[in-house]
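User: I'm preparing a small set of examples for a lab meeting where we compare how different chains pack in three dimensions. I only have the primary sequence for this one, and I'd like the structure in token form so I can line it up with the others. Please keep the answer compact; I'll paste it straight into my notes.
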Amino acid sequence: MTNFKLTISDIKGKSITKELKDSDANTLLGLQLGNQTDASIVGLKGKLNLTGGSDKSGVPMRKDIHGSARKYVLLSKGVGLQATEIGQRVRKLMRGNTVSEEIYQINCKYDGELPVEVPVEVPVES
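Assistant: Understood. Below is the structure token output for the 126-residue chain.
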């Protein structure tokens, strides 16, 4: 039972959130950040590029850590580190770059434009 929340952004900056369950979610297991997958799993035509994500505790994924394990890494800049003083380094807990069952949210970049959903207007009674 694998569940993922996919946050999909397009080239114009618009983003949507979709939830994947079971067989659709299993296609993402084992993929690494930077890999591409088919966008048909969320009902779109084209490709999705995996750019990031986080696990159930909010620990972010980092592209330069191999595997799917959590590790303490000494950081001076980049993903998962707030603005610091010059030369300051911080040891933080990060997740590897491989999608596993512990991942909760995955960020993706869509290579086209997301369709615009027209809001449904409800008639107002006077």
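A couple of notes for your slides: The longest strand covers residues 47-55. Helices lie at 22-26.

User: Perfect, thanks.
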